[in-house]
Amino acid sequence: MIGVGKDRNGITLVRHCRFARTPAERQAIMRAIGPVWDGNEVWLLAAGGTLYFAFPLLYASSFSGFYLPLMIVLWLLMLRGIGIELRAHMDNPVWRGFLDFVFWGSSVLLTIFFGAALGNVVRGVPLGADQYFFEPLWTDFRVGTDNGILDWYTVLSGVIALVTLTAHGALYIAAKTEGDLNLRARTTAKYAWPLQLALTVAALAATVSIRPGVLDNYKHHMVGFVIPVLVFGSLAVMLHGILKRADRLAFLASCTYIVCMLVGAAFALYPVLLPASTDPARSITIYNAAAGHHGLSVGLVWWILGMILALGYFFFVYRMFRGKVRIEGEGY
């Protein structure tokens, strides 16, 4: 999510007239994310592969139940790839502007859908007795037993994802650029920060209101309260870094915020993987969804090897392209 967030919303800001004002500045933003944007999709594939070998029931239930949004996400990912790759082969400013818009629109919608997906997992889905379900795109936008993919809670989750990753992308661009572009990126993050704070509080309050049980694990294991402390502490460090022009510090604080929000949600739901909004007994958990012992043992070995290769690749790429990008450079 962190990697996907910075490249997706770095380009989301490209179309903002107050952010990248010239073709050269838009090119600089593309150059900042160009070497890493497609590699970040590896984590999406890895997540699906991990579900397949570790929790096959969860894989089958969620991929069939979320079939419609998954198809939408697939098309948006294709449009996103088309937008950034074809842009490099177009000299016509009209075509470049159109492809920027395609990349911007698909990136915004992807961010909202990924946020809404997390909202669906926290809120729960209408699992049947066979632990399968289907959700339409929306019903009446109320939270209940007859949920759609989009309701007021999941839309709120999508909005906070959009604001969070916009600030995250702005901080990444600030850390990778200099001059006026660096200043505008930092200013964008500064203006997004109070909205991010307000939405974080609103999302936490909304989560407790629709699922009071999310506090149970925190009550039984007080160490869990370290997570919300880190969430708000990282927001404070993020603001400090923005105000002090410490771009890397602010970006790392944003990374910490995103990780802690995801860990906090996982901690609150554990051991449930996919809650049932119909009957809690139908929820998919790590116990009833896990593969057999032999399958998990073999899969763990290959998973570790795959992660070592992926992390090694990312370490090499980020080290190779470390430092600031120049507006007058070449590529993308």
Overall pLDDT level: 86
Q: Strands of the largest sheet, in order across it?
A: 1-2
Shape: globular
First-last Cα distance: 23 Å
Radius of gyration: 20 Å
Major beta-sheet overview: 2 strands, antiparallel
Please write the string of helix (H) and strand (E) elements: HHHHHHHHHHHEEHH
Question: Helical proportion?
Answer: 55-70%
Low-confidence stretches: none
Q: How many domains make up the 3D coordinates?
A: 1
- Give the amount of beta strand, in percent: under 5%
| Number of discrete helical segments | 13
Q: What structural class is derived from the secondary structure elements? A: mainly alpha
Number of DSSP strands? 2
Please give a structural write-up:
Helices cover 70% and strands 2% of the residues. By secondary structure, the chain is mostly helical. Strands 1-2 form a two-stranded antiparallel sheet.
Report a brief summary of the structure.
The protein has 332 residues and is mainly α. It contains 13 helices and 2 strands, in the order αααααααααααββαα. Helix 6 packs across helix 7, helix 8 runs antiparallel to helix 10 and helix 10 runs antiparallel to helix 11.
Name some characteristics of this structure.
332 residues, mainly alpha
Write the layout of secondary structure elements.
Layout (H helix, E strand, L loop, with lengths): L1 H11 L10 H11 L8 H13 L1 H10 L1 H21 L5 H31 L28 H25 L2 H32 L5 H5 L5 H18 L3 H23 L2 E3 L9 E2 H4 L3 H28 L12
Antiparallel strand pairs: 1-2
